Amino acid sequence: MEDGKAIPFQTTYQGLYDRCEEHRNQPPFDLPGRWKTSQERIKLSVPYNFVSTADIIGGNSGSPVVNKAGEFVGIIFDGNIHSLVAGIAYDEEQSRAVAVHSAGIIEALQSVYNAGDLVKEIRSGQLP
């Protein structure tokens, strides 16, 4: 809940493009050319970012997010405003870690960066 409104726990690529369009592709909501030309190829329903109640502090950017089965599901890159005091006190009600979703990473590598070989390597866990 923020400002009395429920906030979804994740975003999708559709939301990324909608937000860009809503702000007429003006900074800080503008997208690089490659992302604009990739819009027709990208699966817009794929999760892009998500939040969790992970207890983070400054320096956690790049930390892996794993589910209860130990599977990699994302990479933390930020926290909401309420997470700033987490070095002193943690508040599960409001503190959130923000992560890029692993499916979003794969989708970008495939559809935006044409890095299919890298995607195969990531999925197999082995070098070609």
Automatic annotation (TrEMBL):
InterPro entries: Pep_S46, Peptidase_S1_PA, Peptidase_S1_PA_chymotrypsin. Pfam families: Peptidase_S46. The keyword Hydrolase applies. GO terms for molecular function: dipeptidyl-peptidase activity; serine-type aminopeptidase activity. Its EC number is 3.4.14.-. Keywords: Aminopeptidase, Hydrolase, Protease, Signal. GO terms for biological process: proteolysis. Belongs to the peptidase S46 family. This is Dipeptidyl aminopeptidase BII. The gene is dapb2.
